[in-house]
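Dear H.,

Thanks for agreeing to be a second pair of eyes. The structure we're designing against is below in token form, covering all 278 positions.
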């Protein structure tokens, strides 16, 4: 009897308590072989997705505060290591054999053709977007040295090789006599290429950059709208090992996606007037 008298109010109290505290969603993930059951956040995502957002915010803050010259000073030890790395690759490579790190990405954008993306890539908006396009981008400053020839100064890493270099002769179309290793790629109507030159005072050419863009019919990929394909290659002496090339392939993919997303945004919000809209 006593129990049943108590039980009713107790059940009511418990019911209220439960109603006030909605069931907490949990999510399970396994990281490095260890299982974690986590709850708390309103939005439950894999731990790395939270961490990536925080890392982007922190990197953006640091890069912005330091600025190009601050980053150049701070990263001097890494840059000197990279200079030694590249001189070693140049010395050990055979003079006529080159290997490339290649990355290709097709994206389907509502407001951008291949020509639009190419034009955006050579605009000041591309330099502005550069640092956010990849965590290992520290700065890129570009000037037009003569009509159609761009000179870029860049500080950037690939898998930790943090290199300060210039691309003094970036031209459309590529100079395929000067850079005999470049692929022809006749299916890509828009192409540009230039040398990668160490900024350590030696003017050593350690690589050649080749970027090609084309429109891709949507139906080839079951898409309603047409896409654009960006095909980027960086050529090095054959002494480079594949782990370096792999880091660079991954870097290229991140960069193409982030840059093209920013280009689409700049066109969409009117900051960039695409040539095909004129
Ligand atoms: C971008 O594409 C969308 C979808 O086709 C269209 O509604 C919009 O007007 C376009 N914006 C610009 C700036 O062209
Ligand atoms: C570092 C950085 O800002 N990267 C951007 C790459 O693109 C994603 C969208 O996929 C942005 O969220 C990132 O901010």
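And this is the sequence the design step returned. I haven't edited it by hand at all.
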């Amino acid at each position: 009897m006593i129990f049943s008298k108590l039980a009713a109010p107790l059940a009511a109290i418990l019911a209220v308590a439960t109603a006030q505290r909605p069931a907490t969603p949990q999510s399970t993930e396994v990281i490095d072989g260890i299982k974690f059951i986590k709850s708390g956040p309103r939005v439950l995502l894999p731990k790395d997705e939270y961490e990536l957002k925080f890392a982007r915010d922190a990197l953006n803050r640091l890069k912005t505060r330091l600025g190009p010259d601050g980053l150049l000073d701070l990263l001097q030890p890494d840059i000197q290591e990279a200079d030694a790395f590249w001189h070693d690759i140049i010395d050990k490579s055979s003079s006529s054999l080159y290997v490339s790190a290649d990355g290709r990405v097709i994206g389907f954008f509502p407001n951008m053709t291949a020509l639009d993306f190419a034009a955006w890539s050579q605009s000041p908006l591309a330099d502005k977007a550069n640092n956010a396009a990849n965590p290992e981008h520290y700065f890129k400053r570009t000037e037009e040295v003569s009509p159609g020839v761009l000179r870029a100064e860049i500080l950037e890493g690939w898998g930790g090789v943090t290199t300060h270099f210039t691309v003094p002769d970036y031209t459309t179309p590529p100079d395929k006599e000067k850079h005999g290793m470049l692929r022809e790629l006749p299916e890509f109507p828009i192409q540009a290429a230039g040398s990668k030159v160490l900024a350590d005072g030696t003017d050593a050419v350690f690589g050649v950059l080749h970027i090609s863009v084309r429109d891709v019919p949507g139906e080839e990929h079951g898409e309603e709208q047409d896409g654009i394909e960006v095909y980027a290659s960086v050529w090095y002496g054959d002494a480079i090992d594949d782990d370096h090339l792999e880091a660079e392939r991954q870097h290229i993919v991140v960069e193409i996606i982030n840059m093209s997303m920013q280009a689409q945004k700049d066109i969409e919000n009117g900051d960039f007037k695409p040539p095909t809209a004129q």
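Two observations from my side: The mean pLDDT is 92. Helices lie at 2-20, 47-74, 76-92, 114-121, 124-133, 242-268.

Warmly,
E.
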